[in-house]
């Protein structure tokens, strides 16, 4: 009997393949994106020190208060501006974008574009 892999398993396999080539450093940390069915999460991670430098999600009270829905493209764009502003406040201006195995389309693209407009370079 043939067992078909779930979409989550396929995404995780893609992410593992991506992580062989993407590694965040202190000079250029990694902007990691995760999206669930209801929320989105973004973290800026220094892999050499195994430390999260900046994080934001649609679960945070101040972010959630400005959104009507937390799982659409507009929410992703708002989260991108929030993570961009937090990163600039922390002194981070260049990052490596880690799409987390997701296709660079829709919510992931909206978050990346909004982070670029907020001042992050990648």
Please give a handful of descriptors for the protein shown.
122 residues; alpha+beta; 4 strands; globular; Nucleotidyltransferase, domain 5
Distance between the termini: 45 Å
Figure out the total of helices. 4
Low-confidence stretches: none
* Structure summary, number of beta strands: 4
CATH fold assignment: Nucleotidyltransferase, domain 5
Q: What secondary-structure arrangement, pairings included, does this model have?
A:
Blueprint: H1 7-19, E1 30-35, E2 40-46, E3 51-57, H2 61-65, H3 73-89, E4 96-98, H4 107-118
Parallel strand pairs: 1-4
Antiparallel strand pairs: 1-2, 2-3
Helix pairs in contact: 3-4
Describe this structure in words.
The protein starts with 6 loop residues before the first helix and ends with a helix. The chain is built from four helices and four strands, in the order H-E-E-E-H-H-E-H. The chain is of the alpha+beta class and 122 residues long. Helix 3 (73-89) runs parallel beside helix 4. 39% of the residues lie in helices and 19% in strands.
Outline of this structure?
The chain has 122 residues and is of the alpha+beta class. The chain is built from four helices and four strands. It has one domain (7-118): Nucleotidyltransferase, domain 5.
